[in-house]
Amino acid sequence: MRKKLIAGNWKMYKTIPETEELIKAVLKEALPKGVGIAICPPFTSLMAAASLLKGSGIHLGAQNMSENDEGAFTGEISWKMLKSAGCDMVILGHSERRQYYGETNEKVNAKARKALANGLTPIVCVGETLQEREGGVMEKVVGGQIRGCLAGFSAPDVESLVIAYEPVWAIGTGRNATPEQAQSVHAFIRGLVSELHSAATAEKIVIQYGGSVKPDNAANLLCQHDIDGALVGGACLKAESFGAIIRAAGV
Ligand code: PEP
What we know:
Elements: E1 5-9, H1 16-28, E2 36-40, H2 46-53, E3 59-62, H3 79-84, E4 89-92, H4 95-101, H5 105-117, E5 121-126, H6 130-134, H7 138-149, H8 155-160, E6 162-165, H9 179-196, H10 199-204, E7 206-210, H11 215-222, E8 229-232, H12 239-249
Parallel strand pairs: 1-2, 1-8, 2-3, 3-4, 4-5, 5-6, 6-7, 7-8
């Protein structure tokens, strides 16, 4: 049985004092055992978050990472830096990085490869735009992203990463995919992983849904057979709503 994983993507929000306040409030929430939780604050808040999360069992993730080990790459952050700051996860290929920073499937592939080789769990984001969905090419786009981002990966590598299906039209818009829409894409992704690797690998891989997940829609999304958790943006910036979504995954 796959364990559900709820991850909070803080995006470019929260200073260090604000980080401390939010993490303390999350730790006060009633959090069910048996649900994986990850918090992904901005780089500058990682160390403060790590020290508060120590011993809590909550994973700490970054929102991006270089595909290089080190060198003259101004503004970039390496896997080694993330690990030394206390991270064990990293979000890669978020649609905002694809849209504003030109991140391609090839880049995400190189970054995920580097993360896996160095003990960081990548959360690899995929998802179609509204135009692509309405144009009937959703499967072509999402399938191409999965094939590109995971090209050349071994079955154990695929089993140890996380995929986040995030329809771009649902991110930060308040317009979430219906549970049926999300389930159908998750089943498509799992089927593709089965085709590329095996049914056993497809059974193991964790596939999160992301896109306007809120306390009032979380339960209906999270009870779908192929939805193994959520990548949460806006609603993770308040401890009560993040806690409520985690509790919805625990029932
Ligand atoms: C996200 O940032 O990955 C996201 C899903 O955001 P939101 O929950 O605000 O739609």
